Amino acid sequence: MRGTMSGHQIFVDELARFAGAAADTRWTAIAERLGAPLRVAVSGRRGVGRRTVAHALVRAGIDLAPSSNAADLDVYLIAEVVKPEDRDAIAAAGPRVLTVLNKADVSDTPPGVSAQPMVGLLAVAALDGLLDDTRWAALRLLSARPADLSSPDSFLAGTHPLPVETRGRLLDTLDVFGITAAIAAIRRGESRAQTQALLRRLSRVDAVVASITAAGAEVRYRRLLGAVAELEALAVTDRLAGQFLSRDDTVIAQMLAAIDVVEAAGLPVERVRHPAEHLRQARHWQRYSRGSVSALHRACGADIARGWLRLWFHARATGRCQSAEARRD
Prior knowledge:
329 residues, 64% helix, alpha/beta, 3 domains
């Protein structure tokens, strides 16, 4: 039912193709609004590493907004302890916030807070390729001549052939956690590229990006609903708009975008192939859309039901054609 692309992206691509054929600025404007990247703001109190995390997210492909007011999603950073101002900010942001525990190498997630762990410093080191020749040589020396890494101060103050200035640069780039992990990798015989990949995994930046993508499902679906409403208005005088909205690819793309929303909310959606199961799923989601759920989830249920009905119809039609062919033979 689904390839590697999201339903939203399938809809965007198909709409862009139709907009090109329509040669109408109204189509183009709708397509551009729908296809705009998810805008993310990074916020949090002073000292939690906002600039570091923001830089890492940009390098990982996230589009940053200049402020929370201009963003579709707010990544709110906490670190070490959660203060009353943190709880107030998270509560005020509501469902459009993703809480991230930065500096997760030195603290556990505080009780009462659901947060995605991340080590922003390691993410920047990995994504910016900061394991240059000088740092790599320093790490190799440390792997052969161990230093006191019990704390940053001990590392800087201890007696060691590695210059203090170089030790400071390593701390600025990797901190004690990253230095220790890199030394262990070198002792296992891993290359510079492998060590850099390890740092990326330890930073958990990819998990945070995946969480941002999942959290953006609702934003993208709301945009899609807005685009559909505009196209329905166009369809009164533009036959091409009506054709686009009724196409199989469009209906299934809406279905998949709606599935992204309900799955992000923790609801399972079965993937079934038999026509009887298609019809059962359509009935299930039709009931869901009429239940005590939010307006957004009512729309999701209706779009999912419509998609299953379309799949059921085509499966039945294909079956009838095959039966007719068999009778002729």
